[in-house]
Every structure is written in structure tokens, then in C-alpha cells.
Fold this protein.
Amino acid sequence: MVRCGGVRRVLVVGFLVLAFAYVHALAQAPTDRNAASQQPRVYASMLQVMRGVLYPASNVIFTAQIDDPASFKPAEHTSTSSDPFTSTYGGWEAVENSGLALAEAANLLIIPRACGNGKPAPVGNADWQMWVQELRDAGMAVYKAGQAKDNDVVLQAADTLATACLHCHTKYRNVPGGIPARC
Ligand code: HEC
């Protein structure tokens, strides 16, 4: 009996300690109002953003010009498939997601960062900003094409997207001299 009471006392004390620690932690936790707000941080050059984010996302819709998104069979392991069409979010949903990814990726193009050659990218230029908006609109057109599940709408959206890429590339990427001469 005595031992049993001792165990109970230890449990009660343990509970009180935990409850106190929890209340204390709540009191210390920063609220939304006074937490330091996060700022965008830059890790990649414009060249790396293009290769790592825009290129893979846009290839989904460019593939959909040729292959019907509904024709893809899910991969054996959908959750680890590197092909959006055969992944867990495959088929037409992959088209929707690539459109949203591109519209969101447009935000990365207005964050000041360097080009591949180390020069600052011209993110403040009026024409650059106009073509970023064109990319946003094209991304949302791709999203809507995915929702429409219509191959003709996909062709139009892919064309709108390719034109958006091309407009900016004509001035800022396709320059004689390649990477060292860009931006
Ligand atoms: C607002 C301007 C702009 C838009 C819009 C844009 N790009 Fe770019 N892109 C650039 C610039 C500038 C470079 C060169 C970057 C560098 O060298 O640092 C580039 C480079 C690239 C590269 C790398 C080329 C290489 O030398 O390896 C790829 C790939 C690319 N873009 C894909 C795309 C795709 C796909 C789209 C459309 C979905 C797109 N970009 C839209 C400005 C843009």
C-alpha cells in the first residue's frame, strides 16, 4: 500500500511539473503579432531558378502538347515518381499543378538576385516586369487548361506559355556571347 501511494505521488508531481512546463512554454511562445517576420531569402542565381524551377514545371505542359495527360499510367511507386504525370498528383492534375507552380515561380523572378555571370538581374526594368506578368498569366492559363481537361485548350495554353518565355529570352537570354554577356 505504501509503495503504491508513493508511485501515485510521483505521478501527481510528474503531472504537475509537465503541466507547469506546458503553461510556461505557452506564455513564452511568440504570438503572430510579435514574432519576427520572415523575409524572402535568395539561394539561387537567375540561371539556377530557370533550370531548377521554370524548366521542369514548363516541361509538363510542353509534354501535354504531344501526349494526352489522361493516357499516363500511374508509376509503380506513385509517391516517389519523378515524372509528375505518373505521380500521386498525375494526369490532368499534373497540368494544373505545373500552371500554379509557374504562376508562383514568377514571384521568384522579381526578387533581386544575380544572373549566372554575377551581375544583378534586371528585375526592376519595366519590360522585365511586363514579361513576369505575362508568365503569371500564362501559368494561370495552363492551370485552367488542366481544369478544362481539353487537349485544344492545352495547345493554346502551351503556346501562350512558350511565347511568355520567348519574349523575355529574346532580350535577356538569347544574346551573343552566352552566359557572360546576359542580363
Ligand atoms: C522575365 C524574364 C524571363 C522569363 C519570363 C523567362 N525567363 Fe528563362 N531566362 C531568363 C534569363 C535572363 C535567363 C539567363 C539567366 C542567366 O544566364 O543568369 C534565362 C535562362 C533560362 C534557362 C537557362 C538557359 C541556360 O543557359 O542553361 C532556361 C532553361 C529558361 N530560362 C527557361 C525558361 C522557361 C521555360 C520560361 C517560361 C516558362 C522562362 N525561362 C521564362 C529570363 C526569363
